[in-house]
Input
Amino acid sequence: RLFHGNDFARFGPDESFLLIAPISFDASTLEVWGPLLFGGRLVVFPPQSPSDLKLLRRVIEEHQVTATFLTAGLFSQVVDLEPDALKGLRQVLTGGDVVSAPHVRRVVEQFALPVTNGYGPTESTVFAVCFRMTRPDQVGASIPIGAPIANTQVYLLDDALAPVPLGAPGELFIGGDGLARGYLSRPDLTAERFVPNPFASEPGARLYRTGDLARWREDGTLEFLGRLDHQVKLRGFRIELAEVEAALASHPLVRQAVALVREDVPGDKRLVAYVVAQPEQSLDVTSLRDILRERLPEFMRPSAIVMLDALPLTSNAKVDRKALPAPDGAAPVRAAYEAPRNDIERQLATICGELLRVERVGVHDGFFELGGHSLLATQLVSRIRSTFGVELPLRDLFEASTVAELSLSVLHLTAAQQASEAELESVLEQFEQLSEEELQALLDAESSSGS
Output
């Protein structure tokens, strides 16, 4: 089922496949049986991590490997740091995570090397859907996961297990010969994930519900949108982390991006982004926030953006989200740091730093540029009220959010409030000089005028 009748890769006596995956990992099925079933040659990688890119290149060159499967994370690292490792190959297969379009385009253009993006959970045996790219014009802003391979069916269904319209997101279900029987000694989980196939004519047919979100494109290929369990709820809003990552990746200097929700302080959940810049490029975090402001609503913008040299990978060369570090409080600033110049600015900087958990806030640092959001904005307004005794309208905060601008707002509100108090005192003094008859006449006049 995986090899016969499919065109996502070439198999035959002229091909040498590299076995990188552990034998317990389902990708090894492709790497072992792909060459052996068709008279090809199998090259076994040494018992060391393939993240040793120098070793990976040496093995490919010395053993004249022509085809290999690299997980999405490892593929990006090879393209960036050891691209010559790909020179002797005739085809590359990748997948296991979201594949970077700029990296695929570079390989197809520079090496004229076909690249296949393969999608498929272990429960459907390696690949269920593939997209093979042999020309640069096939590589768009994002890489689709493609169309189902032979003897495989895929469906995009809603919560009622009904097909969704073209272009609409739906959960991806897989059927066909590649499905596993179930989970060993877990009948409850098997019943939950492997469900009866309502579209099949043969009795007993099943579908595997992947938990992945996808949509059909007009060209008949599938676009992966992210995990349903990566659809998080933050401050009452549902957020699809894949959309945040896609917005970050749209920046031309971004190589990789990951978004997740952290709760480093109990009860304080925050959306955090991790970004790796293109090699030898200096990425300005402010420009990232500008792009996010254009593409995402406020509630979907990360509170913190952490720059990394590389994303941590698991032993299977997938992004290790659990190993991503907590933001260290060294928040980006829009301009060079300038210390607060007076008591009001110092108090405001302290308040902003406490709310945002940022060590140092300068007078020209914007509250929202440092990771503020609408919920924190209401807390800031409350803190300003209790500290300075003035009511700052929330809309004013969104229009002028630097410490310097907030200081001016506080000064203006304080002055207006003092003027109102002085005016009130003057009026009261005038009232005190009036007789009871004059006061009654004044009240009667106001009453008759409707005031």
